[in-house]
Amino acid sequence: KTLSGMALKLKALGKAIKLHPGQTFTLETANRDAISCDPVRASLSHPDRYGARWSTLDWGTQWEGIQRIRAVQSDQEHANLVDWMMSENGLDREHAEATANAPLPEGYGRLGLTATTQIFSALEDRVCTYSDAVTVCGWHHSDGRTGEVLEQLPYYGEILDRHVIPGSGIKADDDITRYGRITNPTVHIGLNQLRRLVNRVITVHGRPDEIVVELARDLKQSEDQKREVQKIIKRNTDAAIARGKKLVEDLGQKDTGAHRMILRLWEDLGHDVMTRNCPYTGKRISATMLFDGSCDIDHILPYSRTLDDSFANRTLCLKEANRQKGNKTPWEVWGDTPKWEVIAANLTNLPDNKSWRFAPDAMERFEGENDFTARALKDTQYLSRIARSYLDALYDGGDGKSHVWVVPGRLTEMLRRHWGLNGLDALTDSDAQTVKAKNRTDHRHHAIDAAVIAATDRSLIKRISDMAKRDENAGAEEIARSVPPPWEGFRNDIATLMQRIIVSHRADHGRIDSVARKSGKDSTSGQLHNDTAYGLTDAGTVVSRKPLMSLKSNDIEVTSRGANIRDPQLQKHLLRATRGGDGKAFEKALVDFANTRKLPDNSDNPYFGLRRVRLEETLRASARIEIRDQNGKPFKAYKGDSNHCYEIWCLPDGKIIAQVVTTFETHQPGFEKKPHPAAKRLLRAFKRDMIALERDGREIICYVQKIKPAGLFLAPHTEANADARDRDKEDSFKFIQMGASTLFKAKARRVHIDEMGRIRDPGLPN
Fold it and tell me: Keywords in UniProt for this one (predicted)?
């Protein structure tokens, strides 16, 4: 009887089983004071349905009744069910009708009927835990290993079936289609790269006896930290329960995760229900509109461009606004229109983690290093946890040993610091040969972490974790400081190894699918062209419009290489108005200029109320994608947005020339770009390809970071965060820029670096 309700308070359960004073359940925390019981029994044993009779039915009859209730899809099936309950279970029509309409829990269990039946039988035969009952059945409650000894890691979807969206199951399909995949792209790529690395190690050295994974998290939490986490969980849990009640009692909707998410997004539009407006139109969204088809959940920054499915990037909007927005940011759609004033006024109601996504530079900010680091940490935490389960598949568990275990990232950092590995001279800037202030600018710092992990045993982890539990900082640091290096000269040996490491980079060659192209389903490795449409002029230049508030100082300065303001008088006025301004001051100067009716000489401002500025620039024919009318005359153009590869050719007369193949060109049917029928290609380089070349009298290995008509922009293979550091004026690092002739003289050629850092150099072409 105690377990017949929907939930049971743990305090009440403690009294029922006569717990001693001071004893508690391990599940009992500040945010969890009850456990779910038997919701099916609670529903069907209601007095208006089966009542007490439900408990007298045998298990088979109960299960048949449940299956019949869940299977009803039509009025006729409902009528048949009522008749069956009356004839087989002895219910009168009123109780049979109520039972046929009984609410049952949504969802499904991970185990099927066969496994569940066997586990139940084991639990009934003896007093034991669930895990023991599973063991009696010949299985393990959490170990996904099958007992098969794998020679190499298969595709992760075959092993981690609990974590992937199921695939087709068809053997003829490729692995991703057949087994499914994890939707997080960082984790998907990370696990595939892990498989390649581990399988390469196995091929060369055999299967490792132990694999240690660094877990991207802190050491054990102190009691205060645990209580703080529990408070947050309880606050979120209480809010979810309240939303569930509102859905059922006020809105007449089912209490599901999807419905609670819609309600949460609606609440996020404003503290007051009267200020909960569509962020794109300013129109009020009432509670009754949430489930009548009027609203959509939208990604503020397009998911296809950011892969950001976080709550902070989602909002609730009207369906028609979502259709207008499409695959663009709010600023790209409405930034230069009168509607922006309404949108801007509504931003004050949104949380800060959403409102910044409406800014003109939202995409640039999203792609910035700081935001990426925060996202990458969450991805890495999940990746490191799931990697352990994946690697466990290599071992059958028959020897009773744990061959795969984890080391907390905090521990690695402490030991690396106390062993003096942070300031290794080996981790130097490639140009200045000076010790880096932050070794995270050198990819080889991961190798140092690996060395520390390999030298860490489980007893040390336990000692430090136990100390950290009592004193989060001082305790763990004290133990780490007392641990000597693994052997004398450890630091120097690691420094020597660092000099020999060649970092492997994942090349981006894109995907040109000729079969899919024929059926109209080709995919690209980058955007075919920029979203901006350019008007064409008789002078051969192109013209575009840009919102006034999105201008930067370099847009106003006259240049011979980029875009200039087409109206020379406007350019002069803007230059005067913004001179000396930067950041917020620059933006304020633009606003003041557009809102000022009089110029400094007291004449009327002809640009009063200005919203958009026309820019004129030269766009090379090779970079121009023209759209033609029915007569074949071009009337607008787009700028090619990405380059597919960079090629160096030798003409019959010995002249060395280069050409850039754009992504748009590559995807044209029958495309072939050869400068001369008898030309010989000396080099084809894609982004992230590895290039060997001679520089300053020595051979260096670089990777391709950018491809431009001016040549390749290269970074030494050890350099990390190269793009951001090249843009940083205070960072000494700069790309190595080389054109066709310079690359030819430097004996540049593509080389292959395998997962273990071994180099395969084909040498120069004949």
Answer: Antiviral defense, DNA-binding, Endonuclease, Hydrolase, Magnesium, Manganese, Metal-binding, Nuclease, RNA-binding
